[in-house]
Amino acid sequence: MPFRLAATVSIAALVLAACGERPAPDETAPADEAPAVQQEADVPQAAEPEAEEEAVTLSPLEPEESAEAFRARVEGMSEDDQAREVFLRELRTARGCEPGDAPLHSFEPRERGEDEDSADYNAALAEAFLQENVEQPCVYETPSGLQYRIERAAGPDNPSPVRGEYVRVHYAGQLLDGTEFDSSYARGEPAEFPSDRLIAGWVEALPLMRAGEKWTLYIAPELGYGERGTPGGPIPPNAALIFELELLGLPERE
After folding, report:
1. Which of 199, 219, 235, 242 is catalytic?
2. Which residue of 6, 16, 130, 209 shows the fewest CB atoms closer than 10 Å?
3. 87 is a catalytic site residue
4. pTM for this structure?
5. 11-253 in CATH: which number?
6. Is 181 one of the annotated active-site residues of the chain?
7. What is the pLDDT of residues 213-253, one digit of tens each?
8. Is 225 tagged catalytic?
9. Which of 158, 186, 144 is nearest to 253 (CA)?
10. Catalytic one of 121, 129, 140, 243
11. Which of 171, 218, 219, 235 is catalytic?
12. Which of 87, 219, 225, 242 is the catalytic position?
């Protein structure tokens, strides 16, 4: 379910996009610690219009808003504010999507060619996987290319972290072949760290999450550990990553 925002768009096009099914590396850290921050998350841009307006299924935790009400609310806003509202409406739609028992991923990596180096091989696998994955039920994509699926949603009264705020999370990270390279679940205790000292995919996702939510993140190499990976392992160069991420709380507000 890819979602892209274009440079300019009319209010009508914004509403069409909002009513469809579609809504920030080189520093690294050891895989058993919080990943290093790469860059700030991109601000969403304006959306490509959909061919037809489709029904929106918002989470029951969200306030109802018709397409007409949305159109009236965004009319007169700046282009950037309109684009932001479209993005947030898609996020509300993602919270209403129910993935059911769909697995984290179902991808069989091809064999590596004899003359293919590790970085090129992993980059090709990442591209193929992400192209397939974004079409899966309840998988959404931000303008930066971060893909996500909301496994458990929380209501708007649950707070979201601001950039740099400490977060308490449980998480598990996998490579595309299913190898688990890090897990707070396996260690038996959650992790706490500043929300801006992480890989770019996490830096982007955490402010969108609400305390109590559980997401699956599908992270492209440029939003993860990039061309270097983690020297000495366990993450190879240009690897796409899959994280189960649960935002348990915000320690500084407790």
Report:
1. 199
2. 6
3. no
4. 0.76
5. 3.10.50.40
6. yes
7. 999 999 999 999 999 999 888 999 999 999 999 999 999 99
8. yes
9. 158
10. 243
11. 171
12. 225
